[in-house]
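Justification of resources, computational component.

The compute hours requested in this renewal are based largely on the per-chain cost of generating structure records like the one below. Each record pairs the submitted sequence with a full structure-token output. That output is archived, and it is also reused by downstream analysis tasks.
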Amino acid sequence: MVGAGPKAAGPEGAGPPAGVASPPSPPAAAPAPPSGRGPLITLDFDQADIETVVRTVSEILGFNYVLAPDVQGRVTVHTLGRIPRDDLFGVLLAILEVHGFTAVNAGGLYKIVRMEGAAQRAVPTIIGPAADTTRASDEIITHIVRLRFASAAQVVALLRPLMSKGGHLTAHGDIDLLAITDVAANVRRALDIIRLVDVESVLDELQVIPIRFVDAAQLATILNQRRRPAAGPGPGAVLIVAEPRSNSLLVDAPRHELELIRRLIDQVDAPIPGGRRIFVYSAEHARAKDLASSLVALYAGPATGAAPTQPLVRIVADEGTNAIIVTASPHGWPEIEATIKQLDRPPRQVVVEALVAEVTLTDETRLGIDWAAAIGSVRVISLTSTITSGTTPTLIAPPAGGFTLFGVAGEALAVSLNALASQNRVNVLSTASVLVSENQKAAINVSDSIPIITSQQVPFGGAVPTGDSLTTSVVGTQAVEYRDVGVILTVTPRIGEGGTVSLDIKQEVNDVGASEPPTNSRRIIKRELDASVVLLDNQTLVLGGLIRDRRTTDERGVPLLKDIPILGALFRTRTQMIEKSELILLITPRVIGGTPAPAPPPPAPR
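The structure output for this chain reads:
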């Protein structure tokens, strides 16, 4: 599609001048008013076709254009206030660049094409070391410069990361000729860097100095104003250029000048109060809430002396994304991040195998700890523990020395208990295996919930008439609470060095007793144990010594006759039996990926 602006907008044949050596300017138009920059113009396009925008600007400036077939799209442009007419062509180039297009000057008209192929078209070409400052920042141009001291290959490697997506960089190594095709703003920046590196620097040093707290471009302006300008490129010249992408300074100067520049940078590039930034760390293994509580106590806790009006570090946990949000200064964040990474480690895991058994102690069956110790390979474990009895102390009678604890290397004890259980000599109450992370609580609950009356209100008082009947004035009520009765085991493991595992154990075994007044609720026979022990990996812990006396009464006699008052005693027999039972707990921790427990030494030769 080809369009042309009205001839009334400017002299016949007017348009952006073409040429190779001389820098062309934006399209000429009608004579400008006395203001010097032309009349003021307002742009207001809402989802307009891009061809409509180009045609409107061409009618105002008076230039011809041609659109490539693939130039399509919608454009929204709103200007806050009016812009001078002389700046309108630069605005058009900016609009085209945002949408991936550009305008290439082809003599009497402009070609509107895609930016990717613009470098291969006839674009304005400038030759020489000086930049063309009259070009619009978004106009694509080609600049050819010859290097005097630096290597073309080295300069290409330095400039290539700074080129835009549609830019092109070519070097002729034999004569050190460099051709740069890009938007005018990038070309001017490349020429500044070339002037910095293309010098004879026998005693000079080129260094890249990162800037942490201030803007590199502003700091470069301050340093260039502070230093006395050199007469031109050559030995002794000081060149300072800002690199905005990495916020760094490229400094080329003699060594003595470089030291002075570094001292000036250290004085200016300093943190200021309130110069904080927001950092986000996504936790991978630990919970962000737990990490935040530790970090707050470490970095954001109250300080001694006068309290600051605002904390220097603020830490918040986002549980939805499991991330930590930290507000801190840029120089303080690396230390906080290193601390978080040390805390955010994958947790080690432990498989806890537990077996709870009730052993009946009789004259024929000497089980319990005495029997278990006969198996051999016994290791005593250090611990601290407490024993809590239930509501009926007479039913739980631990030995005088408290409960007994030892460790067994191997699995002979568990195998023997299972064999005895098959002979009805041992009642296995619970056997379970659970995988748990270290410092996390694992619970094994094999129980029933039974109702217990905790309070009761008995009906009393008179009656009130209700229709043809009477109703008591106070109605009896009961408060019922459900309690677990069975085997409840809670274990919290902590993995130590050298294959040791620390266990915090809480064991509770409850039985249902007879009804008790005044509520006639079943009483709870409770056996509870708290212990903290240290074991080796794959070592079995045995807890025992909790002995209970169970009293049972057996009545036998002649039917009917044994129920006669007084004389019935002659026809019946009552037998009271006391049965002792001991509660045994076997726990074996197995560290996942941990160090295996050392094997027992081989038997000595005979």
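Confidence is low (pLDDT under 50) at residues 1-36, 303-310, 364-403, 594-599. Residues 560 and 568 are 9 Å apart (CA to CA).
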